[in-house]
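Quick one: co-fold with iron/sulfur cluster.
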Amino acid sequence: MSDFRSLYVHVPFCRHRCGYCDFTLIAGRDDLIGDYLKGLARELDLLGHVPVREDERPELDTLFFGGGTPTHLPPKELTRLFQIVLSRFRLAEGAEVCVEANPRDLTDERLDVLRRSGMNRLSLGGQSFDARALALLERDHAPEELAEIVRRITPGWENVSLDLIFGVPGQSLESWEETLQRATSLGVSHVSTYGLTFEANTAFETRRRRGELEPVDEELERAMYDVAMETLEAAGYAQYEISSFAKPGFACRHNQIYWSGDSYEAVGPGAARYLEGARETNIRSVLGWLARLERGESPVAEAEELAPEARARELIFLNLRRVRGIDRTDFRERTGFSLDRLAGPAILHHTQAGNLEDDGQTIRLTRAGRFLADHVMADFLG
Ligand code: SF4
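Sure, here it is.
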C-alpha cells in the first residue's frame, strides 16, 4: 500500500446548489445518504483500507471531510461517517481533523458529534457579512446569524476557519472591507478569501451570459484582494498561500500537503488522490459513483502516472501557491531537476514582469503576482 499520511473524504450533499457552485454534489437528495455511506465503506475496502484493530490501522496526520457540506448529514449519519473512516485509520498525536461546515447546521447536537468523533478544526462557509451579497450567493444565513454562530462556537473550538468571497456582483470595496473587519473582530484562527468565478455550467454563468449578472471589473477585484491582504495581515493573520491567512500555528496542515506535492489518499465522488506521482480521479456523478461501487467496481474515472519531468513541473505549479515559494536546493533534492534548467525562461519572464521575486535561492510570487497566480503558474507547466 502506498505511503500517505493524509486522507480527504468527499461528502456530496447540500440542501441546495448555490448558483456559483460547480463542486461535485447532489442537492435535495438526502434519500441517498444511506447509500453514500455504504458506498464509502465499499470504496475504502476496495482500496485495501479495511476495518482492523486500532493498533493495526494506518496513521494519519491530517484528515479532511469536505464537500458539498459534510454537516448537512443528520447527527446519526454524521456519526456513522466518522465511524466508517476511523475504524480503518487512526489519528497520529496532534493530527489535524477538519470538517467543512455550513454555519446554520452547527446545532449543539451536531457540534457534540463532531467533538466526540475527534474533529478539531471547523471550516465554515461564511462567505460574507453583507446581507445583499449573501442573498445573491444564495446562502441560507444572515450576517448577524453568522456572527452569532461564530461567537457561540469559538470558546469551545480553537481552530475555526472562515471562507469569504469577494468580487460578488454589486459588492463595493467598502462592503468587502466591512466583511473582513467583522471576520477579524470575531477572532477566528484562519480566513480563506476567494474571488468569485463564473464557472461553466453553473447558474451564475448562465445568468452572466443573459446579462443578468455583471462580474465586478478587474480593477475593483484587484483592489479587493489587496485590501484582504492588508486588513488580514494588520489583524495578525499571516498569508501563507494565495487564498489563505492564519494566526500563528493555525495554517491548514491538510491543504499544505496538496501544495507541497506530498501523497494523499482521497475517497468519495469526484475525489482525486495523488500517491507518489500517480493521480486518480473518481467519477464525478454521485449516482455513477454509487452504481459502480454497488457492482463492486472501482469508481476511478481517470488515472495518470506522471513522468519525472511532468511531476517536477507540477511541483513548481503547486509550490508557487505558497507564499514561501520554491527553494532551488529543496526542489533539486525532491525532483532531481534543476529549477532553472526546467523553467529558466518562465522565471526570467515573470521576474521582469514583476510577478515573481528571485533572490537566487528562492522564487516566490510578488504581491502583484499573487493576483495573477493562475496565469503565472500555467506558464510553468511546459
Ligand atoms: S453550500 Fe458550498 S458546496 Fe454546497 S452548493 Fe453552496 S457553495 Fe456549493
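If it helps, The chain has a mean pLDDT of 96.
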